[in-house]
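A reminder from the course coordinator: this example appears on the midterm review sheet, so study it carefully.

Given structure:
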């Protein structure tokens, strides 16, 4: 069976993501549940750091955090590095705190890879990769950002996730 695919329709273009169900099954299941619930529709990429990553899936246009289900176990593995074009779960300093927010790596971010079992070395779980639309990821990564309240690196002009839906390859 092939891996599930999700199409992120954004205000800057479409991003097709292949989910790595064989590498991070609980994370993929969690992400797909949010997708199926329409959770991501209308949220924004609220944190964009040039030549690093684009983070979304948690905030609306007013930078108000959308309520989520509880956190999931971190399935970070040295076998799935945070390479350019991969999608990973965002979290706090606590390794097992990821809920709905994700980020797309704009470059190879080896320092985010799993290197051990401590909070500092646990890493960030990669659960997918951009199959098509890396040009859109790069375009988002170059937007002008500003400070908004307590948040840095917020796009000056919102980059919206119009919809996130399962995508069936024919």
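Designed residues:
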């Amino acid at each position: 069976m092939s891996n599930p695919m999700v199409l992120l329709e954004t205000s800057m273009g479409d991003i097709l993501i292949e989910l790595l169900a064989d590498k991070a099954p609980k994370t993929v299941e969690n992400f797909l549940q949010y997708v199926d619930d329409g959770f991501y529709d209308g949220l924004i990429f609220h944190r964009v750091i040039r030549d690093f990553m684009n983070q979304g899936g948690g905030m609306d246009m007013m930078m108000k955090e959308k309520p989520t289900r509880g956190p999931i176990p971190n399935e970070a593995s040295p076998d799935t590095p945070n390479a350019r074009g991969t999608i990973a779960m965002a979290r706090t300093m606590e390794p097992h705190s990821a809920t709905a927010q994700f980020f797309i790596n704009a470059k190879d971010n080896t320092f985010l890879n799993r290197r051990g079992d401590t909070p500092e070395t646990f890493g960030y779980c990669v659960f997918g990769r951009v199959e098509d639309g890396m040009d859109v990821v790069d375009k988002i990564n170059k937007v002008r950002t500003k400070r908004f309240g307590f948040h840095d690196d917020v796009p000056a002009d919102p980059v919206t996730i119009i919809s996130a839906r399962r995508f069936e390859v024919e």
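Strands lie at 5-10, 13-19, 44-49, 53-59, 86-89, 102-105, 126-132, 145-148, 151-155, 161-166. The chain has a mean pLDDT of 97.
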